[in-house]
Amino acid sequence: MPYSVSPVGYLRSCFKEKFAIPRQPQLAPAARGVLELVAPFDSGEAVDGLEQVSHVWLLFLFHQALEDQPRLKVRPPRLGGNRSLGVFATRATHRPNGIGQSVVRLERVEPGRLHLSGIDLLDGTPILDIKPYVPYADIVDAASNAIADAPPPAIPVEWSASALAQAREHALRLGEPVVELIEQCLAQDPRPAYQTPTPERRYGVLFWDVQVRWHYPEPGRIRVLEVVPS
Ligand code: SAM
Questions:
Q1: Where are the domains of the chain?
Q2: How far, in Å, from the CA of 100 to the mean position of ligand 1?
Q3: A single GO molecular function, which one (predicted)?
Q4: pLDDT tens for each residue of 70-122
Q5: pTM of the full predicted structure?
Q6: CATH 2.40.30.70 fits 9-138, yes or no
Q7: When you count CB atoms within 10 A of the terminal residue's CB, does the N or C end of the chain come out lower?
């Protein structure tokens, strides 16, 4: 029997495209956004007490990955895209009902608006529910996961002098930690695992309203070339 759900709000996120979003929350603490609640949740009542909580669970729709036909097996990018696993063994975006979940830091609460950091969600993501993180219940000391047992290894991110100056200017203009956001996201090497980059090849992504361009002087090393208005 089908059920229907309605978003309680939408996330305004630093991430304007799927590329280069970390694979899980908390990996980029400088990734920030504002959850704008919709009526009737936009009154202060629905968030009363939430200021006593440091982190929240977001349940959301992978609205840019919804599909009619459910997949039983998926190829997680983490495994290089060449090994398939049962969908329920992964946190893949293509999944039954398209529901995602992330624990994110709650920076500030206002009536109708939650300021968040450490997000891994695209701009415009519909949020289905918000729940307080409860450490005694949500931390499982004995937990293990042999498929995803550690965060992705970080690679060094270097800057051209001009790109760093540009990023600092945009950070001041936006009031956002743009330098840290770029370093934290690119250190996770967003390039598809099957691609071996040549130094000539340019990569780019939009964070906030700035286009970030970089290349790989050699595989496993990133150099940011420019950070310019989109
Ligand atoms: N933490 C969540 C979970 O476990 O359900 C998301 C994990 S999923 C592997 C993370 C990826 O989802 C990000 O790297 C980004 O590319 C993608 N993503 C984020 N928001 C999305 C959205 N609204 N629609 C489609 N894909 C999205």
A1: 9-138, 157-229
A2: 7
A3: tRNA (L-threonylcarbamoyladenosine(37)-C2) methyltransferase activity
A4: 899 999 877 777 889 999 999 999 999 999 999 999 999 999 999 999 999 99
A5: 0.96
A6: yes
A7: N
